[in-house]
Design goal:
7 helices; 4 domains; mainly beta; 32% strand; Alpha-Beta Plaits; 493 residues; 27 strands; four-stranded mixed beta sheet
């Protein structure tokens, strides 16, 4: 609670009632009181004058007068100073390096060193998130901390160094390092053997986390392994699936039967947190409107029909078939384009063939159109001081690109961002459709084959031989049927 003096009387602002004369004499000597405009204390040797600061200041004091030095600060000891150049110093984008054993809660400090790099570039796209950094072999020895497995902190994100290359030549003395986002630590956790009994994507993440807990990889060397948190809002429910010798990150985004391949979704990462949602977490739609000659200094349009088809026929290695066609697009094509792919499974499962076929179809039913754009550094141009947010584009955001010369006026997602981390300027962007797979150039590269390879033909020959062989009057069953029958039902047949 605070005390206020009004009309010569002190009172409390929070008091329920205001007493007209709450401090009647005699006052204790230690009380402060207001007398004739001065605050005094009962002790005679103590007095504070209200007007005490109206005396002439010493010449060493700085002062401000509208009529002197154009209203800027001045000092009588320096009569020849004409103005003082005052400005706000913009905080430098600092890059830190930390020890490989830095505790998970320790990345708010300065770490081993605050670096002074020559160059630092980040690339964030469908397949990678990485840093390339060049640093001088400085006299303070900061460069000696750029060791493999140490961690860089760049623009709030953590990256683990995987290559380090010091070099001395006639052109200079420097070290070049490459680092991957800290989320790639999850690629070092192995799921030896585990069976997912089915459920939505959130339950799948929980399954994968529990499948690596307590395994010897987490215990044999270190106890400081970082803990990651994952989340998904995808409510699609899928059936059981086995995972054998798959890394945790592979189960999320890399393997043929990964979460992203089975459930779809878009990946978001923020240090020790990740999510795979229907729409990328925190991504913005209608986030930008890029115009050629204003925001862009270069635009390259690429139209790729190499994987496109109008009809897709999907087979599995048990002879089952499922197909789909796009009749609506045929009026824009000279002729129909048919493709066949084979899915290789350990079990006969028609539902899975249909689900995988639909997912694959989404990657080939339309031509791939991408736009590579070089962005003007508008935030350093005083003419665009009011539009500094034009540089705040993020991977996953969507917006409109407009280029009348190329007849382009489309809504696209940002699928790649290249940024100068020393200035914060985006130097290059790629726009298109986010890939369904994060770490692989082709969808389900290990499961899908052409169906015409030597291995495919050999597998079909073996299957047909087993199916058609009559062994001592045994009843014949297709392999896909025996897969779902118990041994007891087959005894004696």
């Amino acid at each position: 609670m605070s005390w206020v003096i009004l009309n010569g009387q002190p009172y409390q602002t929070e008091a329920a009632e205001l007493i007209a004369e709450p401090m009647l004499e005699p006052f204790p000597l230690s009380y402060l009181r207001l007398t004739n405009g001065s605050i005094i204390n009962g002790f005679e040797n103590f007095k504070i004058e209200v007007d005490a600061m109206k005396q002439v200041y010493p010449k060493t004091y700085w002062r401000i007068k509208k009529t002197v030095n154009f209203g800027l600060p001045y000092n009588e000891m320096f009569p020849n100073i004409i103005g003082i150049d005052l400005w706000a110093l913009e905080r430098k984008r600092t890059i830190h390096v930390y020890d490989l054993h830095e505790p998970q809660a320790g990345f708010d400090g300065n770490g081993l060193a605050i670096l002074d790099p020559i160059e630092c570039t980040s690339v964030h796209n469908d397949e990678r998130w990485e840093i390339t950094l060049r640093h001088p072999l400085d006299e303070w020895g900061k460069w000696k901390n750029l060791l493999v497995n140490n961690i860089l902190k760049v623009d709030g994100q953590l990256f683990r160094i995987d290559t380090s290359q010091p070099e001395i030549s006639e052109s200079g003395r420097e070290i070049k390092v490459h680092a991957k986002h800290i989320s790639y630590d999850l690629n070092d956790l192995l799921i030896h053997f585990a069976t997912f009994d089915g459920g939505n994507a959130e339950r799948f993440i929980q399954f994968a986390q529990s499948s690596v807990e307590g395994q010897w990889e987490k215990e044999w060397a270190h106890t400081d392994q970082y803990e990651f948190e994952g989340h998904s809002d995808i409510e699609t429910v899928l059936g059981a699936e086995e995972y054998v010798n798959v890394t945790f990150w592979g189960a999320m985004v890399g393997a043929d039967n990964s979460l992203m391949n089975r459930y779809g979704g878009e990946l978001y990462r923020d240090n020790f947190y990740f999510s795979i949602n229907n729409r990328m977490q925190y991504a913005h739609d209608n986030a930008f409107y890029l115009r050629y000659s204003l925001d862009m200094v270069k635009i390259l349009q690429k139209v790729d029909y190499s994987d496109f088809c109008t009809a897709l026929y999907c087979y599995d290695n048990y002879g089952q078939m499922w197909g789909i066609t796009n009749v609506a697009i045929n009026d824009r094509m000279h002729h129909a384009i048919s493709r066949m792919v084979q899915f290789n499974y350990s079990e006969c499962d028609m539902d899975r063939l249909i689900a995988d076929g639909n997912a694959y179809w989404k990657t080939v039913c339309y031509p791939k159109i991408t736009y590579e754009i070089e962005i003007a550094a508008l935030k350093d141009d005083e003419r665009y001081a009011d539009f500094v947010d034009l540089q705040n584009y993020n991977y996953g955001d969507s917006g409109t690109i407009y280029c009348p010369e190329l007849d382009i006026n489309e809504v696209q997602k940002i699928t790649e961002v290249e940024k100068d981390e020393l200035t914060g300027n985006i130097t290059r962007m790629v726009l298109g459709n986010l890939a369904s797979s994060f770490v692989r150039p082709r969808y389900m590269g290990s499961t899908i084959t052409s169906g015409n390879s030597a291995a495919d033909k050999q597998n079909r020959a073996v299957q047909e031989s087993v199916i058609t062989t009559d062994i001592n009057g045994m009843e014949q069953f297709p392999i896909c049927r025996t897969e779902i029958m118990k041994i007891s039902k087959l005894e004696g047949k």
